[in-house]
Amino acid sequence: MKKFVLIAALFTSVSLFGEGFRLVEWGANLAEIKKAENNRKFIKSEEVQTQGKYIWNLDIYTFEDSLKSAGEFNVQYVLLEDKLIQGNYSQKIKNGDLENYNKMKKILEDKYGYPQGVYKSSSFLFENGRENSAEKKILTWYIKDTRIDLILKRDIEFQINYYTRDRELVDFILDKALEKEKEREKKLMKDSEFIKSKI
């Protein structure tokens, strides 16, 4: 299952590029998203995202959409307690063809200038005794209340991920993570007391 880089948003349409994600502002609820998407059918999934001691329970709503000449994309709205905090586009790369990735990169650069952040990594995994490279390149733009990452994953897939930078929502995200941590600590204390009583 795809992991979300939620914590990155903390530090730092159907218009593809704008404030919020698609035609929806950050913090919108599911009803507002459905209205903006003309009651399109979503596939819902849930994911627990952890980063160190922080824990979030996320609801993810996915569908396919066509972005003109760039083809079909998976589109995801990521909500935390019915508030939009992240949006994603992703597309598989066929036969190493980077044409659509390069189109999206050019559109982002034309609109926002050169990326403010560039990150490259490569790691090597071994599968069945064979070396398998896991390269990744991330270009990042910061605009008002939004962070945009264009991610290229080893000529297999590329993503355009939008994260909220809205101060109120970032505080909300941190508060929810701390609530989960406090719940976890409370349960550990309770379990510890139970074990002590039995020893």
- Average of per-residue pLDDT values: 82
- Poorly predicted regions are 1-18
Q: What Rg, in angstroms, do the CA atoms define?
A: 19 Å
Strand order of the largest sheet: 1-2-3-4-10-9-8-5
Sheet with most strands: 8 strands, antiparallel
How many beta strands in the DSSP annotation?
Answer: 10
Kindly, what is the distance between the CA atoms of the first and last residues, rounded to a whole number of angstroms?
40 Å
**Strand fraction band?**
35-45%
Helix-strand topology string: HHEEEEHEEEEEEH
Please characterize this protein's 3D structure.
- The protein has 199 residues and is α+β, with helices and mostly antiparallel strands.
- The protein has four helices and ten strands; from the N terminus they run H-H-E-E-E-E-H-E-E-E-E-E-E-H.
- The strands form two sheets. It has an eight-stranded antiparallel β-sheet. Strands 6-7 form a two-stranded antiparallel ribbon.
- Strand 3 (72-80) and strand 4 (83-92) form a beta hairpin.
- The model is unreliable at 1-18 (pLDDT under 50).
Concise structural overview:
It contains four helices and ten strands; from the N terminus they run ααββββαββββββα. It has helices spanning 6-10, 30-36, 99-112, 167-198; strands spanning 43-51, 54-66, 72-80, 83-92, 117-121, 124-127, 130-133, 136-143, 146-153, 157-164.
